[in-house]
């Protein structure tokens, strides 16, 4: 299971890039899991409280799992969850690749998205940066950079990353 993080500050294009990479991976026949860090504060929106699985959860089940027509839905209470905890859950689906949106401080290979050159001042301290995507050209000493609107170069980089064996896996 190969893991690639897509990180950056708010409105840097994380979801847009994640969706592009997801599409490329699916076209290549890969089985993909996506994990997103909900950094907007507060709990996630939940399904209707009228569903049986939500009724179980609302009545105190620490974990409620529902299955139907090929889809598993799970809600679990856990005060703190690390990316490694979530990757352990993701592993049960036997994905080839896990795309992780967020969790900047985690130790997996990552694409760093910049809103501006100033973002690089703080984001360059992150570990395992493989690629930087920026709206303008930035000279970097220790990472490859492509322009934000160069989807062809991003696709080429990702296909090489996806099919290569030099990156970290779990």
Task: Describe the structure in your own words.
With 170 residues, this protein is α/β, with parallel strands linked by helices. It has one domain: Rossmann fold. Helices cover 28% and strands 25% of the residues. It contains 5 helices and 8 strands. It has helices spanning 14-27, 52-58, 83-91, 119-123, 151-163, and strands at 2-8, 32-36, 63-68, 71-76, 97-101, 110-113, 129-134, 144-147. A 6-stranded parallel sheet has the order 2-5-1-6-7-8, with helices on both faces. The protein has a two-stranded antiparallel ribbon with strand order 3-4. A hairpin with a 2-residue loop joins strand 3 (63-68) and strand 4 (71-76). Helix 1 packs across helix 5 (151-163). The chain is globular. The chain starts with a strand and ends in a 7-residue tail after the last helix. The relative contact order is 0.24. The model has no long low-confidence stretch (mean pLDDT 88).
Task: Write the SSE topology.
Layout lengths: L1 E7 L5 H14 L4 E5 L15 H7 L4 E6 L2 E6 L6 H9 L5 E5 L8 E4 L5 H5 L5 E6 L9 E4 L3 H13 L7
Parallel strand pairs: 1-5, 1-6, 2-5, 6-7, 7-8
Antiparallel strand pairs: 3-4
């Amino acid at each position: 299971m190969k893991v690639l993080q897509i990180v950056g500050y708010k409105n840097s294009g994380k979801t847009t890039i994640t969706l592009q990479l997801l599409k490329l991976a699916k076209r290549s026949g890969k089985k993909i899991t996506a994990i997103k860090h909900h950094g907007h504060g507060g709990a996630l929106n939940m399904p209707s409280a009228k569903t049986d699985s939500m009724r179980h959860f609302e009545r105190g089940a620490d974990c409620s799992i529902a299955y139907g027509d090929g889809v598993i839905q799970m809600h679990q209470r856990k005060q703190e969850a690390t990316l490694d905890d979530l990757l352990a859950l993701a592993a049960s689906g036997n994905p080839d690749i896990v795309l992780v949106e967020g969790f900047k401080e985690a130790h997996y290979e990552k694409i760093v998205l910049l809103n501006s050159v100033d973002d690089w001042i703080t984001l360059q301290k992150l570990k395992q940066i493989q690629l930087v995507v920026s709206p303008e050209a930035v000279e970097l000493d220790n990472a490859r950079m492509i322009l934000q609107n160069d989807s062809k170069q991003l696709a080429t980089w990702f296909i090489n990353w996806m099919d290569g064996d030099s990156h970290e896996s779990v």
